[in-house]
Amino acid sequence: MSELKVVGHNKPRYNGLGHVTGEARYVDDVFVPGTLAVKALRSPVHKGIIKKLDTSRAEALPGVHGVVTCEDVPCNTYGYLTLDQCVLAEGAVRYKGEPIAAVAADTVEIANEAVGLIDMEIEKQTPVFDPVEAVKPGAPLVRPEGNVLMVGERPYRLVYNGDIEAGFAQADEIIENDFFFPSQEHAPIEPQVSLAVPTEDSRLTIYTVTQGLYFLLKQMQRILGQGEDVSERWSKRHQYTHHGMGFSDIKYISCDVGGAFGGKTELHADAIAALMALKTGKPCKWRWTREEEQLCSMRHSPWLMHFKDGVTKDGRIVARQVFTRHDAGAYTGLSSYVVDKHAFYVAGPYYLPNVQVKCQVVYTNKVPTGAIRGFGVTPGTYACEIQMNMIAEKMGIDPWELRFINAMRHHDQLATRTKLDSVYLIETMQRLAEIADHPLDEKFKAMDSSPREA
Amino acid sequence: MPNSDFLAPAELEQACGLLADPALEPLAIAGGTDVMVRFNRHKRRRRETLVFLGKLGLDYLREQDGQVLVGACAPLSEVAASPLIRAKLPLLAQACGEMASPAVRNAATLGGNVVNNSRHADGVAALTALDATVVVASTRGERSLAMAEFSALPKKYKLAHGGVVKHFAVAPLEAEEKWAWEKLRQRQGESRSIVSVSMRARMDGGKCAALRLVIGCMAANPFVSAAASRLMEGQEPSEALINQVAQEVLGETSAVSDARASAWYRERATAVLVRRVLSQLN
Amino acid sequence: MALLEIKVNGRQYRVEVDPWANLLDVLREKIFITSPKAGCETGDCGACNVLIDGKLKRACLTNALTANGSEITTVEGVGQKGALHPIQIQFYENYASQCGFCTPGMIMASKALLDDNPTPSDPEIKEALSGNLCRCTGYVNIIKAIKAAADDMSGQGGEQ
């Protein structure tokens, strides 16, 4: 066996020297001569209809090179799985901070002044912020299709195994609890920033902070031209045949990223910086302020989870029912994806002969939510494990023992009925007890993950 | 086009003259740790003439005629580290050393702190507890006001006629005087105070002869608790009396709820800090 | 516009600046010294820390013209590849950076600390770095790196 050169050795960070010498290059450290500063007009209201949007005074301010509204976007709707989000608000705004227009000017100061010169009238409407309120009949509509995302015929993702009611009937105790996992803003020290540079052959180079180059490249390509519904208005207005920008027309360059934690998986600054570059023919940089980062960038959603477990006297969970509400904010984003992931795992690594999980995406008039480290799984694990401890307390059983009793073994099924080949949870807990100096009863020391008898 | 300018006068009289000229739209700047935050939060081309106070030599820390003179433009870190201030005005040294963060303290000044009309100003609270006199220079000469009086002035009168805070004059702490500075904040650094309680007191044979107990961040300005002076002066600082003061102080003001703390929490925290501070009279 | 004359990392510069300009924007956008970062522009995160005449200050809160005639030090002036300062070496070797965005500010605060106090205690290190935020590392390795640098530097008789 040859000597391992990497595994088992301390290796310095590949870009660590750049960090300590200042040579590391983040998007805002890239300078291209003639770069314009971009600033956006954002919705001051949580929900409303745009009655008037007149950019003429902004366009006339000396030092302004261009202004964009939804009229300037080849394809204004985008998204991950549901194409419902607008690059620039079109008619209606659904959250405070939603971009409505953008300006590119010689300096940040002039760009800010120009944004102040955009004449806008918005008719305020009644917003809804609480997902529990949003699902009630008569709640203000966040989107025309309703405040809940349908999964086929159902208003939730359903994952189940066995018969939940039969399971409850077998139980000696029913233990029900509610769990709340609050929203989190990633707050990286580097805010969102994007530099878009038009290059020869009508192509575009974009320096981006994104964590997901290919996710966003697909969205950008749709927005900038080859989307299925390229705006007819846009084509007419520009009086030439627009072939649209394909993958080969957009060069996405990822620089060093100043922290993300999931918060740089949305378009944020890229699409609008790109539009400004195309509109003005000049490099355009949009650096969000700390306020924009904290108030307007995608954040991790809040989760409301309800656990109802049926437990026998000897500590076996014979039925587990979970209902989760996930607050998507104003647009879908990755919410439909994450509730699935959550649904697959929230019931925990436990043998549950009867399990039913329902996960619902709810829309509210808040900043759209999205990815964070542990996306969908961490909130579920938190709720599940606290629920286990609460069961242990209620039943008078040691929390370790409760977990040994209910631990999955080889060939057990997840709530999705996926059969797991090898599990080793029991062995892991035994080793953990050893390291933590936690005494275990002999019968738990003797357990192993051998498949359950049929 | 805006007509902004940057001037760095070398003489105080000249600075006052500039600040008194409305045609310039003058704005005084010293360390810049408040002015630049305002500028940065919404960057735009500006019309103001910035009048930089850094060349006026107002950063002295010295004793004169039995008073300690704290230059309004001395950086907080220098006030905190000064052997003179630590010896004669330890309350001020501690208060300055706990404000903001190390880098900000190297630029921020007490002058800036007292003219910004912030409810949270620790400098104002500490100087009020010390019963400092604020000396302000203007085109009409110099005037002196008690710190509490100065902070109660409406903003436009604080620095009328090109006013520049020159220094704070404080009687140095004497042997029979006790002092304390306590404040509560969310983090050890970079966190505006939730509430501050400070005192300067004179003891006489186990009894409290004179007491200035100052509560900060509860009201629009730090205030001297009349109840504390009324109850404690002439008395021994017993636990029962201290508890009574802690309760009566809350009756002198109504607490504010903000991003850092609710009014409910502030009230309870104030009572705790009052007890802690007054316990140091023993 | 007014003329600003500053020395940065030993080199003299003369640039035209707006009266309201902050030093961070001037360093980054006029002189293209990009190690001080814009993390908040309100003086809270510490990513813009520089030394001005040897004192640690926030470049974002420093009106550029108030620093006229000053000597500014940034990370580029602390050390370079091939001639790294012990603080830089120890940050690198102790994994004191992950995304690296807070690192220049951390290094400047560390330099200010060790210039003033070559043998700081743990509480003194934490106090000195109390104006620097890091969202990645959890600070433990940063403190470790500073201690290692202090040991390193006092081993050399505090020459650096």
Write the layout of secondary structure elements.
The complex is a heterotrimer of chains A (454), B (282) and C (160).
Chain A: H1 16-21, E1 36-42, E2 48-54, H2 56-60, E3 64-68, E4 77-78, E5 85-86, E6 92-93, E7 99-105, H3 108-116, E8 119-124, H4 131-134, E9 157-161, H5 164-170, E10 173-181, E11 193-199, E12 203-208, H6 213-223, H7 232-238, E13 250-254, H8 270-280, E14 284-287, H9 290-296, E15 299-300, E16 303-311, E17 317-329, H10 335-345, E18 355-363, E19 369-370, H11 377-395, H12 399-406, H13 425-435, H14 442-445
Parallel strand pairs in A: 1-14, 12-13, 15-19, 17-18
Antiparallel strand pairs in A: 1-7, 2-6, 2-8, 3-7, 4-5, 9-18, 10-16, 11-12, 11-14, 16-17
Chain B: E1 5-7, H1 12-19, E2 26-29, H2 35-41, E3 49-52, E4 61-64, E5 67-71, H3 76-81, H4 83-88, H5 90-97, H6 102-105, H7 110-115, H8 122-129, E6 133-138, E7 141-146, H9 147-152, H10 155-158, E8 164-170, E9 177-184, E10 195-204, E11 207-216, E12 223-224, H11 226-232, H12 239-251, H13 263-279
Helix pairs in contact in B: 5-8, 11-12, 12-13
Chain C: E1 2-8, E2 11-17, H1 23-30, E3 49-52, E4 55-58, E5 71-73, H2 75-78, H3 86-93, H4 103-116, H5 122-128, H6 140-155
Parallel strand pairs in C: 1-5
Antiparallel strand pairs in C: 1-2, 3-4, 3-5
